[in-house]
Amino acid sequence: MKECTSCGKETQGSIKFPCPKCKNDIQRCNKCRSLSIEYKCDCGHKGP
Ligand SMILES: [Zn+2]
Ligand SMILES: [Zn+2]
């Protein structure tokens, strides 16, 4: 399942990037990315 980390919805055309802290994959949809919505990783790392 590809779910956006920020909004929790299934994403299309999302981007994936490693968490700067734990290198876990973080998935974000284009909407959340363009709105700069905060993401939160399982490890507790937060970012814009
Ligand atoms: Zn999203
Ligand atoms: Zn992390």
Description:
The chain has 48 residues and is α+β, with helices and mostly antiparallel strands. It has one domain (1-36). It contains one helix and four strands. It has one helix at 30-34, and strands at residues 15-18, 25-28, 39-40, 46-47. A two-stranded antiparallel ribbon has the order 1-2. A two-stranded antiparallel ribbon has the order 3-4. It is globular. The termini are far apart. Bound molecules: zinc ion (ZN) (2 copies). One zinc ion is lined by residues 19, 21-22, 24, 41, 43, 45.
Quick structural gist:
Helix content is 10%, strand content 25%.
Helical/strand content category? alpha+beta
List the domain count as a whole number: 1
Low-pLDDT parts are: none
Order of helices and strands: EEHEE
Molecules bound to protein: zinc ion
What percentage of residues falls in helices of 4 or more residues? 10-25%
Largest sheet: 2 strands, antiparallel
Silhouette:
globular
